# Entry
Amino acid sequence: MVGGYVAHVTAPATFELTDVVAGPADAPILKGITLSVPCDGILAVAGPSGSGKSTLLRLLNRLDDPVSGSITWDGRNIADWDPRELRRRVAMIFQSAPIFRGTVFDNFGVAQPGLSIERAHHVLDHVGMPRALLERPADQLSGGEAQRMSIARALLTEPKVLLADEPTAALDTASRRTIEDLARELAASGVPMVWITHDTAQLRRLADHAVVLVDGGVAAFGHLAELDAHDDPRVRELVGAPFGGDA
Amino acid sequence: MNRADIGLLGLAASSILIAVAIAISMWRRLGLERQLLWAALRALVQLLIVGFALQLVVDEDDPLVFSFIWLVVMHVFAAYTTWQRARDVPSVFWLSLLAYSVSAMVTLGVLFGFGVYEVEGRTIVPLAGIVVGNSLSATVLVSRRLFDSGKERRNEIEGRLALGLSASEAFQPMLRESLRTALIPQIETTKAVGIIALPGAMVGLILAGVDPVDAVRVQISVMYLVLGSVATTTAVMSLGISRKMFTSSEQLIRRS
# Structure
């Protein structure tokens, strides 16, 4: 474990990670982390490149398995879930929104075969996209639209949790803000999120809690206010504390 | 002289055409003289060896077991060649050996099962040769494409997995595309046959003195055999590779 814990997150946990080692077995990226992901709001995952943020996220919907340690979701070891069932409940959006062949409606059909037009319109409304885009070839969408479509597509599986791997890193400011607003709405409507970000300003706009990873370990975890007062200046810098590393 | 027997003099005379090719290479300074000569000599020696070896299996009184031994050797060699051309594809040797074998069983099973050809060395070995020979490049192509798509289209595959699709559903578009890529050239060749090119088997039969209409019937069965075998081999191969690319937990295996 790197640094000290600030562990005053009182909300019940959705994911519980215990001594999780992950990445290549001969050179693990996560080196034994223990963490409880709160079951409400947005948990931001911050940390320098290579600290294990994406590795962590990919474990939560079993795109990868840990080398050792255990992860439970909803009180049950995730290795005991059918991966397909787990992934429909624990949805994930990526930095570069995967675009499938065909129109936006076809893309929705991948997540929900036999989808009705009404439901498709409803989910477009939900992510703030015009209904007219439903018949647009998905590869003609702008970056921001494609990302919103991928969120809408993920919502069709009616997930209980949403994982986001720097979903706005490649977007312009306006699109970034739209996605952030959507994320806040989703979190408020009861879908907790785990959101990786490099952008400290975004972290401060979005996060209810944050976990800071450094060198494959948890350097700090807690409410933003707690992390702002953390002893380690690196942690304060990584969460964009008002006084940065100088406090 | 049998019309099929061109004799040594005939062989020597036809090699004038190689001299023509070499002369063109020298004239235009292509630097291909050695390669042309080497290719021509190699083909001559390889085919002579095959010809003598075939004599051991195609006579009516040769036991069929010789033909089957030939078949096994041919399949192993084809799998080895596939491995050489697609070394980084996991288990490519065993998968392609399986694919060639299944394809031979299906296609030859139909031809022999329905009595299109009689089961004898004279038919088993050349027909199996056609199956393997024509499937090889398509098999290598499918293997490479599928394997590369696992790396190049990782985001798209994992995007589908993340929506709760199974590995085979997530990989289905790539599978479809690579099978289409492998089969379309074969379909085009089949469509163009007789208009653009006269196929080898038919030309050989006509040169050997067989009535052209009889030769056409043989050729058609051979072309259907080729289509069927390319489709079967690539289908088995692609299913095998798909399985090797995912874990039992529907995860795309990361390969460097």
The mean pLDDT of chain B is 91. Chain B touches chain A at residues 155-156, 158-166, 173, 247, 249-252, 254 (CB under 8 Å).
